[in-house]
Structure formats: structure tokens, C-alpha cells
Amino acid sequence: MDSGTGRYEFASDNTAGICPEAWAALEEANINEAPSYGEDCWTARVCDRVRELFETDCDVYFVFNGTAANALGLAQLCQSFHSVICHEYSHIQTDECGAPEFFTKGSKLLLISGANGKIDIARAEAVVARQNDLHSHKPCAISIAQATEFGTVYTRDELAAIAEFADAHNLFLQDKKRHGRWRAGDFFSEEAFTRVRLSSETGGATRVKNAFSGRAVAWSSNR
Hints:
By secondary structure, this protein is an alpha/beta fold.
């Protein structure tokens, strides 16, 4: 909440103060020496915690911010002749200055409409059906965000429908978490990692007025 206006601000967690629990954890980690380049006990603990959340053995990598997580995640899935299905108002379309296209070396974003910022599966089916020409970009991934740019949240049934769509079309699924959604329990489990090829699950770490910033990318070791 903005102490000056008494209003809640939802523009970005970059503008908010850090929560007391995260600040206390940072102070604790700052007391003694620790190995660098991800060899410290803190990194190992958080990686294990992510694996616990997903109930599967996945690889976890840390990057600077959400754009890096989204773009680098897609770059591991797609090549230049591939395409990525996303909502027309998704963050990778409206707010990342071409980073997904740049790091994938040319993958095309296939924009799908849908109410409340959510992908409409029927419209996604129609768009995929049109990508059957020899020289069309080949759909390779579908990217969603939880919550969406409109602040709405996919229900478990909606997530299941998207997972089935991805499975039916042999697509990778990128699921991007923001604003603590990893803690809310609306994530995919081992079944999704194995069956639907969920790969680039990303979530926020500690972000506060750009003093600290981070994103984690979880990769299934089954792929």
C-alpha cells in the first residue's frame, strides 16, 4: 500500500517495499562467507524447495528479471522457424520489447484473443489450424501467465484445458508466475511436467524497487 495515498498499487512489484520475511532471510544470508556462482547452501535450499513444490526432479536456474526468464526460457524451446501461442495482451507481446523474438532468433508470436486476458482455447485451435502451410512458422509452445496482464487467474480447470491443448498439439508449455503465485498452489505438478512437457515454469524471487531483483526458471529433467 502507498503510505501517502492509502491506495494499493498493482503496477509492479518492482515499486513495492520488500516483505519482512524476505528481508530477514537476506540479512541472515549476509552474515557469513559463502561460495559464489550458485554453489552456496542458500541456492541449494531454494532449488530443493522448488522441486518440492512441483513434486518432481527439475533443474532450477536464476536470472535477473522476468523478461530474461521469459525470453531465455522460450529460446530453449524454440528455433527461428517456430511460433509461440500467447494472448494478444500477454507480457511477452506488449512489454518485453521484442526480447522473446530476439533470443529465439526469430520465433513468431501467434496472438490469441480471449476474455479477461485469458487464452481462448477455441480461438487457439483455429489459429493452429491455419499454420499448416509448408512455409508457416511451426507452433512449438504456448505461453500463459498466472496472473494475467489483467490481474485475472486461470482456474485449475482452465489450466487443465490448456495442458490438454498443448498435449494434443505436441506443444511445450511455458507457465509464468508473478506476485507470489508460486505460494498460492496454482502450479503444475509432476504429471504436467511429464505428460504435457511443461518446461519453462518461471516465478518471482525478491524484487524491491530494483534493489534486489530475480526470477527462477524451473526445467523438467524428463525432457
